Amino acid sequence: MKLSEELAWRGFVQDTTIADLKYLDEKKLTFYHGFDASADSQTVGNLAAMMLDKLFIKHGHKAVLLAGGATSLIGDPGGKDKERPLQDEKTVASNVAKAKSQIEKIFSGQDFKLVNNLDWFKDIRLLDFLRDTGKHFSMTPLVQRDYIAKRIGEGGAGITYTEFSYTLLQGYDFLKLYKDHGVTLQLAGSDQWGNSLSGVDLVRRVEGKEVHVITMPLIINKSTGVKFGKSEDGAIWLDEQKTSPYKFYQFWLNVDDQGVEDYLKIYTELDKAEIDKIITEFSKDKSSRIAQKRLAEEVTKIVHGEQRANSVRKVTEVLFGDNSNINQLDQDEINLLAKEIPEISFGTLSDRLVEKELLDSKGEFRRLLESGAVSINGQKIGEDVEIKEISLIKKGKNTFILVR
Predict the structure, then answer these.
(1) What is the CATH number of the domain that holds 386?
(2) Domain encompassing residue 31
(3) Could you give the CA distance from residue 387 to residue 349 in angstroms, rounded to a whole number?
(4) Cβ–Cβ under 8 Å, residues 25 and 57
(5) Residue 180's Cα: distance from chain center in Å?
(6) Dihedral over alpha carbons 278, 280, 286, 290 (to 10 degrees)
(7) What share of the chain in percent tops pLDDT 70?
(8) Residue 271: CATH number of its domain
(9) Looking at 216, 244, 263, which one is the last position of a domain?
């Protein structure tokens, strides 16, 4: 499958300045994609953008990935109803370092160049920037941009010059990368369409050259209409300290039936034949959740590595599969499990549960026993017991406790 065909099949194109995407099949380009550094981790929304980049690299195009060390100090106003709090240089520098680490892990084994726009913006003098760059921007189209018009219109929160200048900075990034690295294509999210056009226009005005933009649609949860990657607890992060590999895996395992095919296309590198096969099997028995299981395995592998993906799959099978025997897990996997569920020490089960406030009283424990709602390593028990080895307790339908 050619790149133009695969982009369409995976649903990666929202808007573009390219008249016919077959252009991408005929000529190898150098593209850039910018990543925000306003948070201390990228999210699964950013991961979708990375998967788009990986697809271009697979088809022989050269990648320049940009960490927004300078632009993140300003803050992108796109999609925001009010100005976001400004962050200090130390915080943004730390965020850039973390973004760099995540990008290098996800793009491991692939050829790309990583740059930071602070490297060129930190030495630019204000008067030079206004004379050499600002003079190429007309105010009329800028104030007509959707996000700016909304902010300065009736009932809007207004916009500061700091935020207003963001589009000039992003436009300059394209010009700088065109000059230094031969970049002729920007990839971006659909909310960056206006800012991306600033770069296209600036390169044309300064260099007299034609460059292009492709934006990808924002990923929306079809069942809720909410931006994909948001949960009740907030965003799903790529940093395992913010979203554990287990919770990350569970997120994908629990995606809706309606959207799972789209997520397989966007978030995995499986080809069309493999995804068609998975969806065909899934359609026969959706209760099997075979599509979600494969999705969870593939995405967790990309973000956290194959070994960690296998570990969280095994932990999930022990918790929710037919066999709840914890002896299937090695020490690392038990440690992973211990981060996700309550833990008690060896001893009489009812005593330990009450001590840890996992039960209100021994009377409650007796009632659970009578209703058959307590099991140890998958085996229901009918009386209180003393536990002397590593075990997994299940209380009720979905409450698990580790004993060790």
Answers:
(1) 3.10.290.10
(2) 3-216
(3) 7
(4) no
(5) 29
(6) -10
(7) 96
(8) 1.10.240.10
(9) 216
| pLDDT tens digits, 245-265 | 999 999 999 999 999 999 999
Q: Burial letters for 296-309: b for 16+ Cβ neighbours within 10 Å, e otherwise?
A: bbbbbbbbbeeebb
Give 48-98 pLDDT, tens digit per residue: 999 999 999 999 999 999 999 999 988 777 656 666 677 889 999 999 999
Q: Is residue 332 part of a domain?
A: no
φ, ψ dihedrals at 267, nearest 5°: -105, 5
Residues 156, 218: Cα–Cα separation, whole Å = 23
Angle at 4 between CA 26 and CA 276, to 5 degrees: 140
Kindly report the number of other CB atoms within 10 A of residue 97's CB atom.
14
Can you tell me the mean pLDDT for 121-145? Answer: 90
Percentages helix, strand, coil for the chain (3-state, rounded to 5) are 50, 15, 35
Residue indicated by tokens 């659909």: 190
pLDDT at 314: 92
